[in-house]
Amino acid sequence: MLRAFDIAWDAFWRFVEDDGWAIASHIALSALMSLFPFLIFVTALAAFFDFKNLADETVQLLLEAWPSAVAAPIGREIQNVLTQVRTDVLTIGVVLAIYFSSNGIESLRIGLNRAYGVREQRSWYWLRLESIGYVVVGAAGLLALSFLVVLGPVLWLTAVRWVPALTPFGWVITFLRYAATSGILIVALVVAHMWLPAGKRSLADVAPGILVTLGLWLAAGAAFGRYLAEFANNYVTTYAGLASVMIALVFLYTTASIFVYGGELNAAIRRAREGRL
User: One Pfam family from the UniProt entry (predicted)?
Assistant: First the structure.
């Protein structure tokens, strides 16, 4: 226990020394600015394949892990943006949306490179193309997952019609929905830690930081939701019409700090292991 505390403490001070707070601020702002272009691209991609209704389901999947006090106002603004169906997947507007979405990926790369103490040797244009590829694959994956989530209740109703004994087990659909959201988070964290920063790492090398990140995210989400339930009016009186944006930005800043700390924790474990050897 003492050694685990020493490693966690070492990770925290390295987080401070590596300008973790500033990096987290950059990630939070980049994520917020990338969210809307990414969803515009998702909507265009869904309309291109005639899956127009899946865009709304994708938004719900993305925001399901957020506290309701944060997700509700942002969700309303997203719906306002996505009310117009976009079919211009190959136009300049959507190409720019993909490019601006990749800025969020690049901010994560910068934070993890700093956390793992590695210097990027790859060309900038190759890194940008890689980030754009993650955006495209992520959008297609979310649409595919949204299709399965929409199809699930239909299949369940069909199964209940044929086998009425399954009726009491309707909670399975809700469980699968939350499992899908959790799966998105886990896959995203594994991909980010293993392949975004420079160098090579195994799954065992990144697993501790990922598990701690997930645990701290759950705790921070619950605490932030409880805080907003009591003091949400403070944001309204301070930021007026920008209250919902500032709430989302503070929440993203908190989650980004935890994300960067997860990388610092993996690096601290590596240092402890090398020192012991």
Answer: Virul_fac_BrkB
